[in-house]
Each structure stands twice: as structure tokens, then as C-alpha cells.
Amino acid sequence: MTVQRHTPTLLSMAMIGLTLTTLSACSGLSASSESSTASTTQVQATASTMTKTITTGEHLLVLPGHHSFSIGPDSPAQLTDTQTGQPDWQASWRGELLDAREMTANGQTVIKIVSLDQQNQLHLLTLVASTDTKSGYTLQQDAVSAPLQQPLEGLCLYAPLSNSQPANLQLFLLGEDAMARQLVLNPAANGSASPPHTTQLNTTLLRQFATAPGAQYCVADDQRDTLYISEESVGVWRMNARAESDAAREMIDLTHPFGHIQGQAGAITLSQGSLWLAESEGHRLHQYQQDNGRYLGHTLLAETIAIDTLLTLPQDTRAGALDKHSGSLITLELPSLPAIEVTDVITTVVANGETQPVKKAGDAADDPAIWVNPNQPDASRVLGTNKKQGLYVYDLDGTELQELLVDRVNNVDLRQGFHYRNQPMDIAAASQRDRHSIALFRIQPQTGVVSSAGEIVTTLDDVYGLCMYQNRARQVFVFINDQDGRYQQYQILDSATGWQGQLVREFAVASQPEGCAADDRAQRLFVGEENRAVWTLPAEPDATTEMLEIASVGEWLHADIEGMDIYQTATANYLLVSSQGNDSYVLFNATPPYQYIGRFRVGLNAAKGIDGASETDGLTISSAFLGDQYPLGMLVVQDGRNLMPEQNQNFKYIDWREIKTLFDLQ
User: Which of 41, 261, 312, 502 has its CA 20 to 30 A from that of 141?
Assistant: First the structure.
């Protein structure tokens, strides 16, 4: 097949014929990619007769319809009509590096493009397509950052799925210092009066982590929250793209002789279910299944072609590439796989508020509880444990109001409408690890002021989790567990000398528990066995201890199973569980047969400068009206990594309306 080419100052929109070699043993790494069992399939493609010319560059993005975007160190950023070869728009700046995302906003197709100019400034361009995309694109905004401090090797966009609109657009930067930096991009609202509106691009650092020398290319899978990085002398690896996650790597493929990559690993891109890797300045493209990283084979281009850059929109099969041999930009039609549906996508809701950080570093914050002010709902309180120091009390703005230095308390819960020395009093209880006891706290019913009220010593050896229960007779109970699986149930009795505890029941799970929650209305207890399952059993002291499994670790729940609580209204009853192993929250119906409803994550709120939540231990929910900010109640979760900026752990506040909307709840 003949490939039509132009001089290095022209754009070649040639469609290259591809030969696809598919390995029969395509799972796992193989020392040889030229297996004798390989079969060869010819992928049909014909040379384009389109010979229109435009200014070239180093990076090419093929857009839906008949347009493209290109840029290079010697070529200005340019939006081109590929039918006429004429630019619709040309920038005054030149640059390098390019990535893009196709989105939908108000029924229109929007293309977000990011690049780096010669002054080391990021540009975030917003293109809005005409109704049919054939009539072209309008450049709506050019948001420009302050100069970056680090020289870059590569960059890639990440648009995590979010229940909020617009989604928080993020960017990975691969630095020459072998460090990756993850930023959130936030264009300023103000700008020039007429399109394209030039405005400031504000960036906030979310995290940074080590890569390696030679890590030049990256691409992010938004649906699967996965970041791929190509390291030229090693291969391609992937990691979790979420800023709240561990920066742990997993190899996808290695260079020869340990993997399929014969030369050096080069540019990578995603296209309709596949990850594609081009060997650096070579003519071999490697294909991997996007959902599991399985190796699918390689594609041979003409030997006269040496791919240097490679870019697609994830929904497209047309890849823009730089042929290093000729200096021409070319378009490749990549073979597509049958669509692999991403089922049960974990969508993100945003945090609406957060508390001040706890005063101890490391893994310190653990479990919250909400006290509802009956007279002034927006003056309600959030209690939160610092398991290295004591108990904190916060207002609904997250400001610390009280600090009770009661040593290592782990889990906390509360109930309202009780008595202390025959006077109205609300009660909180916490698991006290230093003294193997239940720490009790008085809460003033009108003000929410918290004070210590003694301890109940248990016979457990290593107390851990705790929750409370109030039955229809208004009797109050505390469930406390041991790391060996034992549970004890104590009834809290009021007397002239204060609160006393009476052991009324014992039972056990097979391995370590922690989180538990009681449905007071249904008189049921839900308990979490961290590495196994969520169980339910009757909460009354004289009831059976036989347990029913609701859900096990597997598809929805990822160990550890941690905090849980009930969201309850007159018509609704839900159980929410922290799935700590994948930083998500799993929602079930809290009435038989306890159906799975869905799951979500708590992501960053760029507008408010609040990061998301990860590695959540405890959580709590209230369905009460808590003022205009939280009219349907709120969810509070412990955040294991407190970012923006990086600080000690804290608790995040989520408006329940976010979750209600996400799952279309009652």
C-alpha cells in the first residue's frame, strides 16, 4: 500500500494500512512476541485521497467531524478544517505536549484540550462543537496557568466520573525530576470580553509521587480510575488515578526479553476498549485490553514509519501521530474491540464541608457521630474520635468547639432523649482502648455541650468497635466488640449516682469486627466482619444471636469492611457501609431482603477547595433537617488522607441530597 506524504511543513492525513499479529497466549507476559502460534489478520484501510495542507507540529488530535488540532515547538496551536486545509483558529503561542477530553455540557459536545507553551505555561482550551460537528468548533476559552516550576516530560488529563456538574478536571504532569504531580484545574470565571475568552488557569496540587527516569507518556482511563505510564527502558505500568489512593504500581508489559515490547516503550493512548503502546520511534503498536490489561497482540506499520507521538479521543479510533522519519503528522485508523461495558460504575459525590484536622499525625481520626439540636438544627454538632488522644466536638462548619482528652477512644455513637440522675440528658459512648472500657459522655439536650460521665469496664481483652441502640421502650444499650470477634451488649441504667452498665448478652463473629449500627425502629443490629461480610441479627437482649449474611467481601465490598450507619425516614431505610479496600461506600436497603442499591466515592470539591475521602474508618448519617446546608441530613466520613493541602486526618461532610440524586432514592 502506498502512503501519501507531504513535505515536513504539511499535514499528511494518510490512512495507514495495518497488519495485526495476535498472540494465541495473550494473557500474562511472554519473553517473545513472535510466537509460532501467532495468527495474522489484515486490517483493511485505504490511503486517503485528501491532500489538503496545513501547518504541522509534533502532536495531532483528530476531532469529531472534519477538524483537527495540532501543535509543536515550531508550530502554533491550530484548529484546522481538514476538508479545506484552512485554519479556523491559530494561536500566537507554540508549544508541546497535548491531551484532550470529549464531554457533553448542556446538550453540546465540548472538547477540553491541554497543552504546554514555550514559557512553560499550561493552556486549557475549551472548544464547543456546532450541532452537527461538521460546521466546526468555536474556541470558547483559553485558560492559561502561571509558569510551571518543573520541566516536563509528559502530561495527561483525568476526568473522574462525578455526580456534580461540571466534573473536576485533573491533570497528571510527568516531570524531568522523575516525579509525577496530580493537579486539579480550575479556570477563573473572569476573562476577556469576547471569545476566545482568555483567563487565568488556577491549579491546585493534589499529590505527587515518584515515577522513574524515562517516564515520558501517560494516559488516564476515567471510567476505571486508572493511570497508565510508559517508561521507555522498562515498559508500561498502571496505578490508581484517584488522588486519595495509594501510588502502588502494577506492570502491564515489559521490554524485551521479559515482555512483548521489542524496542523502547513510547507513546500510549486509549481507543474504544484498548490501550495502545507505540514502540519509541518504531513501527510496532501493541494492543492491550483496557479493562484487565490483557495483551492482545501487536500491529506492524510500514517500516518507513517511526511513531513518536500518539493521541486519540478515548471514544474515537482515529489516532493522530507524528512520523519521526518524515516529520509528518499522520492519522491511523486503529482496530477497535467490541465495547466492554463498565458495569456498576463507582460515581463520585463531592464533600460539602470538612472539619479542622485532628491534632495528632498519622492514623488518628476514626469515627464520627451527629448530635441534632432540636431547637436550632444548624447548631447541631459532630462528635469525632482521635484514637490517639480523645474526643472532639465540631459545628456544622467543621470548626472545633471542644476537645476532651480522654485517651484512646476508637468508635463513638450517641442517642438522644435519655436521662442522667433522673434529669433529661443525651448520651454518647465510645470504645476506650486503654482501659478496655466503654467511655460515657453527657450531652446537654439544649446546647450540645459534651462532658465525661465515667466508664463501664468490660471483660474484653482488646476493645475495638462500638455502636448504640435505643429500643421502643427508650432503653439504651451499647454494643462493644473485641478484635477477636467477641461482642458484648450492655444496658445503660440511670441511677442517683449516674450511669451504670449491665451486661445483658454476648455473641461473636468468626474474625475481627469493628463497625456496627443499630436500626432502632426495626430493632435490628448490623455488624461488619472486616475481611468477610456484613451480618444482621436482632438487637434486643433476649433475642436470638443467629446471624444473617447481607453481603460478603467480593464484588461490592472490598476489605476492610469498616464503619456503617442507618439513614432512616418515615418511608426510607438504608444501610451505608464503608468499603475501605477500594475507598468507596456501599448502599443497601436496610429492610429484608437487604438489596444492594449502589456505591459511590467522595471526591474533591474544587470550588470549595475540599479534597475527597479515602481509607474511611468510621462514618455516620443523620436524616434530620440540619439547616439550609443539609435539609435532608448529612453523611460524615473519616478521611484517611487529608489533602489540599496535605494535613492531619479529618472528617468530611456530604449533603445527603447528593446521594439521593445519585441513586434516585425516596
Answer: 312
* Cell numbers representing residue 319 in the block: 489516532
Strand partners, 579: 561, 584
**For residue 387, how many C-alpha atoms fall within 13 Å in the half-sphere facing its CB?**
20
Beta bridge partners of 533: 529, 552
What pLDDT score was predicted for residue 167?
63
Cα 394 to Cα 74, 380, 383, 417, distances in angstroms: 56, 9, 6, 21
211, three cell numbers = 515515577
The pTM of this model reads: 0.82
Determine the average pLDDT of the residues in 250-271.
Answer: 95
Separation CA 619–CA 384 (nearest Å): 10
Which amino acid, residue 262? Answer: Q
How many alpha carbons fall within 13 Å on the CB side of residue 243? 34
Q: Which of 220, 216, 244 lies closest to 230, judged by CA?
A: 216
- Among 634, 570, 103, 548, CA closest to 352: 634
Q: Which of 286-295, 476-485, 582-591 has the lowest mean pLDDT?
A: 286-295
Question: What stretch of H or E contains 657?
Answer: helix 656-663
Helix and strand totals (H; E) in the chain: 1, 50
CA 294 to chain centre: 23
Query: Per-residue b/e over 609-643, b at no fewer than 16 CB within 10 Å?
Result: ebbbbbbbbbbbbbbbebeeebebbbbbbbbbbbb
Whole-number Å distance between alpha carbons of 448 and 395: 10
CA 319 to CA 101: how far, in whole Å?
A: 14
Neighbours of 510 (CB within 10 A): 11
CA 77, CA 54: separation in Å to the nearest integer?
Answer: 12
Q: Are 123 and 115 in contact (CB under 8 A)?
A: yes
Give me the amino acid identity at 458.
Answer: T
Please report, rounded to a whole number, the percentage of residues in the chain having pLDDT higher than 90.
Answer: 75
Q: Which amino acid, one-letter code, is at 168?
A: N
Average pLDDT, the chain: 88
pLDDT at 168: 81
Residue type, 347: T
170 phi and psi angles, rounded to 5 deg:
-120, 165
Q: Quick one: cell of 642?
A: 487529608
Residue 616 has pLDDT above 50, yes or no: yes
Identify any residues that bridge with 507 across adjacent strands, giving them in sequence order.
487
Q: Is 411 in contact with 366 (CB distance < 8 Å)?
A: yes
Nearest to 621 by CA among 547, 551, 567: 567
